[in-house]
Amino acid sequence: MSSHGADIAALARTLFPAKGRYKIRIVDASDDDLVDTLADLHRSTFFDAAAMPQFELGAWWLA
Asked: Is the alpha carbon torsion for 30, 36, 38, 42 positive or negative?
């Protein structure tokens, strides 16, 4: 995990200290199932109002 990812994970543990309440994970953009999940969430949230992001660019997180 990059240092940026480690910083975000540490912040999440600080904000949400109760174990089991939240799981925050970085998305592996090479995993087609996870990319499909991101695409489904994007369509459910934005409908046709926003272009589909290029999930292989940048860092994506699921909580």
From this structure: positive
